[in-house]
TrEMBL record:
Lineage: Bacteria, Pseudomonadati, Pseudomonadota, Alphaproteobacteria, Hyphomicrobiales
GO molecular function, one term: 1-acylglycerol-3-phosphate O-acyltransferase activity
Domain Phospholipid/glycerol acyltransferase per the UniProt entry, residue ranges: 72-186
Descriptive protein name: 1-acyl-sn-glycerol-3-phosphate acyltransferase
One Pfam family cited in the UniProt record for this chain: Acyltransferase
The organism of origin for this protein: Pararhizobium mangrovi
Length: 282
């Protein structure tokens, strides 16, 4: 059943993406940028609905009260394609630093340009990176939310953390709060796999780290607080979803934490708890 539901969801997910881009592009490009956000945010909401109804995967968000006013850096764990878009409806005017090759994709790249995202050559150094920071400062002065994945690339759930120090430099240069986010969507939407596991998980938004810390102190605090929350959520998510087939990275981490990691991993659909306080997707 999971295979069939995964095939159906994947087909619906990408059809929804392409059709909405084609149908709503005239509206999207005609609207001012701030109002044009309605188009991608509504696509995200529709994607969450499809995932709940077809793949039987639901989620809830904890800690929305920790999101500050104005400009800040959002620093989520990065495990899945899901976490690249999932939080958009809860952000006012987000901006990403992304690889410039995405700008070359027809239509999709035009959407990115319209929303004033910040392209970067990943192999660039020196002056190029300085220009990226200047652009980031310009956007943050407008009260936008800069989304940065501190580990740089997708990591399997429970994998040894590999936080890049670049986020500390950006934190110091921009002088804004950083909001860490812990979650384990990779248990349900694994990287480089088409299977979508049913179940329920939490996204935990942590209290912001205030500006003004030294780079080393900030980096240490970001890693410690995010990983402590991630460990707690891993234990909780596995406990609440005993059907999950866990990757070895998650099993290994659970053994380190002395938490149960052995599940049968059956194909039956699990119970579907409703999100707390109406947040997330049911």
């Amino acid at each position: 059943m999971t295979v069939l539901r995964s095939l159906a969801f994947n087909a619906a997910f990408y059809a929804n993406l392409v059709l909405r881009m084609l149908v709503f592009s005239p509206v999207f490009f005609a609207l001012p940028r701030e109002r044009a956000w309605r188009v991608p945010k509504n696509w995200v909401r529709a994607s969450h609905w499809l995932q709940a109804k077809i793949a039987r995967t639901t989620f809830e968000i904890e800690g929305l009260e920790n999101i500050p006013e104005g400009g800040y850096i959002l620093a989520p764990k990065h495990q899945s394609f899901w976490d690249t878009y999932a939080l958009l409806p809860w952000l006012d005017d987000p901006v990403y630093i992304l690889k410039r090759e995405l700008m070359w994709i027809p239509l999709f790249g035009w959407y990115i340009a319209k929303m004033r995202m910040i392209p970067v050559d990943r192999g660039a150094r020196g002056r190029v990176m300085a220009r990226v920071l200047d652009r980031a400062k310009e956007e943050m002065r407008k009260g936008r939310q800069l989304i940065i994945y501190p580990e740089g690339t997708r990591r399997p759930p429970g994998a040894e953390p590999e936080y890049k120090f670049g986020v500390a430099r950006i934190y110091a240069d921009l002088d804004v709060p950083v909001v860490p986010v812990a979650m384990h969507p990779g248990l349900f939407w694994p990287r480089r796999q088409f299977l979508r596991q049913p179940g329920h998980f939490k996204v935990r938004i942590l209290p912001p780290i205030p500006p003004g810390l030294g780079r080393e102190a900030f980096h240490t605090r970001l890693v410690e607080e995010t990983e402590a929350a991630s460990d707690a959520l891993l234990i909780e998510t596995v406990r609440d979803n005993p059907h999950l087939v866990l990757p070895e990275s998650a099993r290994s981490r659970l053994r380190t934490l002395h938490a149960p990691a052995e599940h049968p991993g059956g194909d039956a659909d699990p119970p579907r708890p409703a999100p707390a306080n109406g947040r997330g997707c049911a």
